[in-house]
Amino acid sequence: MKLSVAVATTAAAVLLGGCSTVLDGFGGSSSSPVETSQITPAPSGSIESSPVAAPGEPGYGANASSAAAAVTPRATTASAVALSPPPATAPGGVAYAEPGAARTQLAGTWTYGWDDGQKKCKVTLSTDRGMTGFAANADVDCPNDIFMTKGWDVWGNEIVLQNHLGKVTARLQPAAAGQYDGVATGDGAKVTLTRS
Fold it and tell me: pTM for the full model?
């Protein structure tokens, strides 16, 4: 009995040992032989060294006096700058909130229309702060530029819609009670925003 177990174990070991080269490549054949020694030899050659400068000797880098001068605050002669709100039109096309604008009256759900009113989708303007100005959300059936609208603000009398990067996607001016007309900045198409 012990002999048959030993023979079966030996046979299984031989079979598995023979399969190990096939398992390494997951059944594929290798065109190049496997290198048996994959140890990289240590570099040979001479080691070069140089003496280290003694403390206090002039050299490269910082020393105690230069390090202290770098972190010690110095008196400056700069004049005070009054803080003021950013301009209504910032460089780079990013819109900022204009003081006193009636954004709470503009917040809510609007119908965004394009193609002469043939196509429409919902856009929601909020007074919550978003990534760029106040938060805005557009339905998935809106055009790509408007679907990516994540912010809105007021420039003068215009409503400005912005994408997630702060780029202006549409500019609209009042046309009637509850309606704003304007253009999509991507393609210049005429668009409307009507209170829903």
Answer: 0.49
